[in-house]
Amino acid sequence: IDRIELTEGLVRDFSYPENPAVIFRQYADGTIAFLESDCPDHVCVKTGRIGRAGAFAACVPNHFLVVIEGKDQGEGIHDVDLIA
Question: 1, 7, 10, 75: which is deepest, by most CB within 10 A?
Answer without folding.
Answer: 7
